[in-house]
Amino acid sequence: METTKPEKQRLFDLIILDYHMPVLNGLEVFKEVQQVFLQSAVQRPPVAFMTAQSEPAFKKECLDKGVDYFLTKPAPGDVLKQLF
Fold first, then answer.
1. What is the pLDDT of residue 81?
2. Domain boundaries in the chain?
3. Torsions phi, psi of 70, nearest 5?
4. pLDDT digit of tens for each residue in the chain (84 aa)?
5. Integer Cα distance of 14 and 68 in angstroms
6. Fewest CB within a 10 Å sphere: which of 23, 47, 48, 83?
7. Other CB atoms within 10 Å distance of the CB of residue 76
8. Model's pTM, two decimal places?
9. DSSP one-letter code for 9
10. Which residues of 44-74 are buried (b: 16+ CB within 10 A; e: fewer)?
């Protein structure tokens, strides 16, 4: 008899984070988000970083840490719609 794990539900379609935030930076928040969803029965939604920092090394760092999308401000609305 084969058993399968039930698929996790998703509560949100997308999480958008900026790097510069008041208490924690965006990567710190992303790390917290990952931990919450790892311990939950809920599937982590895709995470998009939207920031004015456009340096290739910073983009690579974010994507290497698991961020799904990296957008440079200002991001046109049609680009955001494509993420859903």
1. 83
2. 15-83
3. -125, 115
4. 555 555 667 678 899 999 888 899 999 999 999 999 888 888 889 999 999 998 999 999 999 999 999 999 888 888 888 887
5. 10
6. 23
7. 9
8. 0.78
9. B
10. beebbbbbebeeeeebeebeeeebebbbeee
Q: How far is the CA of 1 from the CAs of 4, 5, 8, in angstroms?
A: 10, 13, 22
CA quadruple 37, 11, 17, 72: dihedral sign? positive
CATH no. of 15-83? 3.40.50.2300
Closest CA to 48 of 73, 74, 15, 80: 15
Separation of first and last alpha carbons in the chain: 37
CB 28 within 8 A of CB 59: no
Q: What is the pLDDT of residue 11?
A: 76
Q: What is the pLDDT of residue 67?
A: 95
Instruction: Give CA–CA dist 36/62, Å, rounded.
Output: 18
